[in-house]
Amino acid sequence: MTSGPPVGQDGHETGLQMPRMMYGTAWKKERTAELVYLAIKSGFRGIDTAAMGKHYREDLAGEGIRRAIGEGIVRRQDIYIQTKFTPVEDPQTAADSQVPYDPTSPLATQIRDSVSSSLRNLATIPGSPDPPYLDSLVLHSPLRTAAATRAAWLALQPLVPHTIRSLGISNVDAAILEELWPPAPPGQPPPPPLLPLPSVVQNRFHRRQGRWDERVRAFCRRSAGGAATYQAFWILTANRELWQEGGVAAGGPGPGPAEFVAAVARGAGGGVSTAAALYALVLALDVAVLDGTTSVEHMAEDLGGVERVAVWRRTEAGRAVFDKCLAAFEEWISSGARG
């Protein structure tokens, strides 16, 4: 399950399509290498990490990838590797965040040093004659001003599409996106962007993020015909009301989202979990999923469950049930949970 291919500065497709189900490696610490290896062995073909030692072990993510390649499970070109440049603006924050650059150096130097470290950690495959590359480099957060964020984005551009296949941005609100990439006036076609558009916008997906980040998801849908993919994290941990028993509408009686999710799980059959059914509904909103499970059983359940829902949805009866649940689910989250 993939999104469209990443697109470079010249507008041409540049490589592997981003899988719609990505494995997230935040907070895995010393278990990162083993979990990344198990995720790939279970069927994940996209790995998300960051050059930020406080929350990620990018070096160990690379170990897990190389182990899977070394055992012949995948080739480098089969794996979508996504990492992040984490901007920090003072030495103490840099020390706390454990970033691989000197925060007092010029921004372009910070980016160069961070990307070089990521290439060593993740993309250098022993014995490969090909130069290392990253499938996606995500700006981990906007900088303090739009001008500084724009400068960082422009500093990354010379690395696309060879060293970095595509660029993204994370932890960003709609106001900042619209300042960097202004929307078209009502009834008019969008103007040519002054900055190349992101291929990925990665954000938290939950109720308190403005009705499940409705404005940012809308930005992604309208950006050059949906060229930007919305990539969601915290789908399970921050949304227990959406998938665990007892999830009810906040505004009064009536079915809640957990009932729609359960109906999809029951309809697809084959032991599809409610977690996988929620992922299937979120995917149907044109959202890519970051799955950070540490259970190898859940890795297989999530991927297998999403695929079983997709197969069921292709039947006439399955499509009718799924589309009804999807419409109700989408209305529920678009209403802000009626609360």
Automatic annotation (TrEMBL):
Record keywords: Oxidoreductase
Q: Per its record, what are the GO molecular function terms?
A: oxidoreductase activity
Q: Which SUPFAM superfamilies match?
A: NAD(P)-linked oxidoreductase
Q: Which residues form the signal peptide?
A: none
Q: Membrane-crossing residues?
A: none
Locate the NADP-dependent oxidoreductase domain: which residues? Answer: 26-220
* InterPro entries on file: AKR, NAD(P)_OxRdtase_dom_sf, NADP_OxRdtase_dom
Keyword Oxidoreductase recorded: yes
Protein name according to UniProt: NADP-dependent oxidoreductase domain-containing protein
* Provenance organism: Phialemonium atrogriseum
